[in-house]
Write a structure and sequence with these properties.
The chain is α+β, with helices and mostly antiparallel strands and 299 residues long. It contains nine helices and nine strands. The protein folds into two domains: 9-101, Phosphorylase Kinase, domain 1 (2-Layer Sandwich), CATH 3.30.200.20; 112-290, Aminoglycoside 3'-phosphotransferase, Chain: A, domain 2 (Alpha-Beta Complex).
């Protein structure tokens, strides 16, 4: 797929340089760290990271994330910090960005065990004294589908039908649980090891109030679908709970798979390739219901 959309790497690099100029910092040596739902650029000379939302439907999340991370700093939560002096969202044309401390790569590398320990600390926090969205994977998926570029009608219909089927099951789970703070996209790629050695979470776009088991599902789904091994066992051991034994595991798994697929639809035309075709996604999702329920156990 050619890169012809609104949020190509070239367009994001131009926006990053505009933001750096607006902030009065040097973009010398800037390099792209990640190009997914956000374009994330390291500016080592300035000691900052610029994170630009690549979907207009997700712009409202930028001020939410900034407010949330300011609160994490006050309670010393295991979260990356905003860059000092740049604690507000930044506008560049019709794009929204946030500015973060630059954490250079350090040894040892973060692991599934680190994720388990960090999530236990994170889940031990009370919800912040301001409103967070309720866990709603279907509502989020519908927003992304509505903002899709380059999505065919057949694929759009498949995704909307999936949302329609999943929505009542998600609603039922929400009614059965007492919601607590949920990161929303907890995997090893969203961990950083600070210079002090402390491991912290980043990427709070999906942070919400909901079932804590949501945060244990991402790694388990990654292993189930893509054959990755090791991280889930380490995560479950460090956290003290194996989400694949949970009675709601089939639903948690399917909600995560939907999230993984719809994550790319707002930027389909802006990326040379996407990590999963919708046709193969259809084949994968049809097998989800065959997973046996595990026996529920207490946390």
């Amino acid at each position: 797929m050619s890169e012809t959309g609104r949020f190509t790497a070239e367009a994001m690099t131009t926006a990053m340089r505009q933001i750096a100029s607006k902030l009065g910092v040097s973009a010398d040596g800037a390099h792209l760290l990640r190009l997914t739902n956000n374009a994330v650029f390291a500016l080592p000379v300035a000691g900052i990271v610029i994170r630009i939302a690549r979907s207009h439907r997700l712009h409202a999340r930028v001020p939410k994330v900034v407010q949330l991370v300011q609160w994490f700093a006050r309670v010393d939560g295991p979260a990356i910090r905003l860059a000092p002096g740049f604690e507000r969202p930044v506008q560049a044309g019709d794009l929204q960005a946030s500015v973060w401390e630059y954490v250079p790569p350090t040894a040892p590398a973060v692991t599934g065990e680190d994720l388990g320990r960090t999530l236990r600390e994170f889940h031990g926090l009370e919800a912040p004294p301001f409103r967070l969205p309720v866990w709603d994977p279907v509502g989020d998926a519908r927003q992304r589908i509505a903002d899709a570029e380059g999505l065919g009608e057949r694929e759009r219909g498949f995704l909307i039908g999936w949302c329609d089927r999943l929505e009542p099951r998600v609603s039922d789970l929400r009614q059965r649980v007492t919601g607590q703070l949920v990161h929303g996209d907890a995997h090893v790629g969203n961990l950083l090891r600070e210079r002090t050695g402390r491991v912290v979470l980043c990427d709070f776009d999906a942070t919400c109030v909901g079932p804590w088991q949501v945060d244990l599902a991402a790694v388990a789904v990654g292993e189930a679908r893509f054959g990755r091994t090791g991280s889930h066992a380490a995560l479950a051991g460090a956290y003290g709970y194996d989400v694949t034994t949970d009675a709601d595991w089939p639903l948690l798994r399917e909600a995560r798979e939907l999230k993984m697929i719809v994550a790319v639809v707002p930027v389909l035309a802006s990326s040379a390739r996407s990590p999963m075709s919708l046709r193969s996604a259809s084949d994968r999702s049809s097998t989800t219901s065959a997973m046996p329920d595990g026996r529920p156990s207490r946390r």
